[in-house]
Design brief:
By secondary structure, this protein is α/β, with parallel strands linked by helices. It has 10 helices and 20 strands. The chain folds into 2 domains: about 5-45 and about 300-410, D-serine dehydratase-like domain (Lyase, Ornithine Decarboxylase, Chain A, domain 1, Beta Barrel); about 45-290, Alanine racemase (TIM Barrel), CATH 3.20.20.10. The strands form 3 sheets. Strands 3, 12, 13, 14, 15, 16, 17, 18, 19 and 20 form a 10-stranded mixed sheet that branches. Strands 4-11-10-9-8-7-6-5 form an 8-stranded parallel sheet, covered by helices on one side. A two-stranded antiparallel sheet has the order 1-2. Helix 6 (about 180-190) packs across helix 7 (about 215-235) and helix 7 (about 215-235) runs parallel beside helix 8. The two termini are about 15 Å apart. Its EC number is 4.3.1.18.
Length: about 425
């Protein structure tokens, strides 16, 4: 990959034009004046804990994981996931696929229909150049199948069909066939198209609507139950093979429901279950702290991603202004969550601090009367939904529990 040196473009990092591979040898400490704040951090202990949790979970339940790489867009972090047993990666579009194919990933699931001529031409060229590259695409309409036939079917000399999954969806959701009859029509269109091979079904249960998490979990379970019925129907109609069908569901909140439906309660022939959680690697302090199936596991998952900011002002009682805002930390799922304060080299729990609003570069912090907080103190902000923190940083330092910088990982958004 490119950008193998740390330069002035990598915000927060010390100057020096250091090779990326030598960051850990610099003796930098994140919170002791070496870095310009605000600064993001990845905690190495948490990354290793969470990698091990998913590896063990997949082994116990006999399932695979293709982590959704849109979360981090980091080849270095994806390499750790693959080393820990991941099948390959999931991406949202072909631009993301380009990053990981360039980085040497050999199995890629594009978890959206691909219809653009340039996108499909790129993937076709990659498959011609590298016969060992596995790319799986989605279809959810007869029109989409026709576009693949026109723009992506392999050359006659290439004996490998293009593998596709039939995407299933629910009313009000994003993509996906909404009825069994529609799913059968799309599957029949794939069967009638030379050069395409239907290898399974796919769907995303993570955004089902509901008043609370209990209702959302129930609706996700209902969607997965219907999806299992569709698989049975497609197998019965000869549109899917009786064995080896790929079923790919499972975001970061309800993948246990996928395992329950397609492993514990599956009554058909053998299926290969491919989960796609993107956020298990870093976990978080908010959304997934509430909804991850790993919550309650022993040992528990650990939030690995955090942002540190300085107290810039105490302009009135009960209010502090932090030097970090929407440009630095996720705000789409929850406001940032203060988890610690560092005062003159010592760190303590946040003690009731609460972010009440954010601007582009600032956060408004409510400070209880009994909590001491001074201008110049550092506040650690936990994140909710890590995806939209990663996309704000080109280079993220990896730190020990003592905040020694041991490595750095680059993102390619």
């Amino acid at each position: 990959m490119t950008d193998e040196r740390v330069t002035w473009r990598d915000r927060g990092f010390p100057d020096g034009d250091v090779p990326l591979t030598e960051v850990g040898a610099q003796g930098w400490r994140l919170l002791d004046g070496d870095f310009v704040l605000p600064i993001v951090a990845l905690r190495a202990t948490a990354l290793e804990r969470n990698l091990a949790l998913m590896e063990g979970y997949c082994r116990r339940h006999d399932v695979l994981v293709a982590p959704h790489a849109k979360t981090t867009m980091s080849p270095a972090l994806v390499a750790r996931q693959i080393a820990a047993g991941a099948w390959g990666v999931t991406v949202a579009n072909v631009q993301q696929a380009r990053v990981f194919i360039t980085a040497g990933v050999r199995r890629v699931l594009v978890a959206n229909p691909v219809v653009g001529a340039a996108d499909l031409g790129y993937l076709a060229a990659c498959r011609r150049a590298d016969p060992g590259l596995e790319v799986i695409l989605l279809v959810d309409s007869v029109e989409g199948v026709a576009l693949l036939a026109d723009r992506a079917v392999p050359d006659p000399a290439d004996q490998r069909p293009l593998a596709v999954l039939l995407e299933l969806g629910y009313d009000g959701g994003r993509g996906g066939a909404r009825t069994t009859e529609e799913a059968v029509r799309v599957a029949e269109a794939v069967r009638a198209t030379a050069g395409l091979e239907l290898v399974g079904v796919e769907g995303f249960e993570g955004l089902v609507p509901g008043a609370d998490d209990a209702e959302r979990r129930g609706r996700a379970a209902d969607f997965l139950a219907w999806s299992a019925e569709v698989v049975h129907r497609l197998v019965e109609d000869g549109l899917l093979p009786a064995r080896g069908v790929v079923v790919s569901f499972g975001g970061s909140s309800y993948f246990d429901l996928v395992v329950d439906r397609f492993r514990a309660r599956w009554t058909g022939e053998r299926v290969e279950v491919l989960l796609r959680s993107g956020c298990y690697l870093t976990h978080d302090h908010g959304l997934y702290a509430r909804t991850s199936p790993f919550v309650g596991e022993e040992p528990p998952p650990l939030p690995a991603l955090e942002v540190w900011a300085e107290v810039l002002s105490r302009p009135e009682p009960g209010l502090a202004i932090l030097g970090a805002g929407r440009r630095d930390v996720s705000t789409d799922a929850d406001l940032p969550l203060p988890v610690a304060v560092r005062h003159r080299g010592r760190t303590r729990p946040a003690g009731g601090l609460r972010v009440t609003a954010v601007n582009d570069q600032h956060a408004m912090l409510a400070v209880p009367d009994d909590v001491a907080l001074e201008v110049g103190d550092l506040v650690c902000l936990g994140v909710s939904h890590p995806c939209t923190t990663f996309d704000k940083w080109r280079l993220l330092p990896v730190v020990s529990d003592e905040y020694e910088v041991t490595d750095a990982v680059r993102t390619y958004f």
